[in-house]
Write a structure and sequence with these properties.
Elements: E1 3-4, E2 20-31, E3 40-51, E4 59-70, E5 73-82, E6 86-98, H1 99-105, E7 114-134, E8 137-144, E9 147-158
Antiparallel strand pairs: 1-2, 2-3, 3-4, 4-5, 5-6, 6-7, 7-8, 7-9
Length: 159
């Protein structure tokens, strides 16, 4: 794991600003403890985030890989975004999760989620918000959403 904090120079008279970067890499990790029936295995994370010029509009998030196995079922996710108010997104998620086992594995409050979630999501495009003024009322509205394909099933669900 490596990280750099504020590389670059801050020179107000030249409008020069540093950037903030954080990254995280985990290869073939696991999560297990005594009372756990099914540990998380093969945890892989490759994540990097950068804010250029200390400007949130230049935020870039790159989750090249988040994957793990739970009770023989694999979950994998890729996510990329650039921007803040007008965000370019690209993501893919394939999940086959027993939510009760996941809740137990992550030691979350019991009985929050139960059931089987099978999910396949692909999204690509722009997410943007705008301001609408109507009859002396100011409202935030979504002006653009990414094109996406979502296939999913949720069986034996309990919330």
């Amino acid at each position: 794991m490596s990280s750099k904090l504020l590389p670059g120079k801050y020179m107000q008279d030249r409008s020069q600003k540093p950037y903030i970067m954080a990254d995280l890499k985990i290869n073939n990790g696991s999560l297990s403890y005594k009372k756990l029936k099914d540990p998380l295995k093969n945890i892989n994370i490759d994540f990097k985030s950068v804010i250029y010029n200390l400007n949130k509009s230049e935020l870039e998030i790159d989750l090249k890989n988040l994957s793990f196995d739970l009770a023989g079922n694999k979950t994998q996710m890729h996510f990329y975004s650039k921007g803040y108010q007008k965000m370019q997104l690209k993501t893919e998620i394939q999940a086959n999760l027993d939510l009760d086992r996941l809740t137990q594995t992550l030691n979350l409050q019991k009985n929050i989620f139960k059931g089987q979630l099978d999910l396949d999501l692909v999204a690509n495009g722009t997410y943007a918000k705008g301001i609408r003024i109507q009859k002396n009322k100011i409202d935030t509205v979504i002006t653009s959403i990414p094109k996406f394909t979502l296939n999913g099933t949720f069986k034996k669900r309990v919330f």
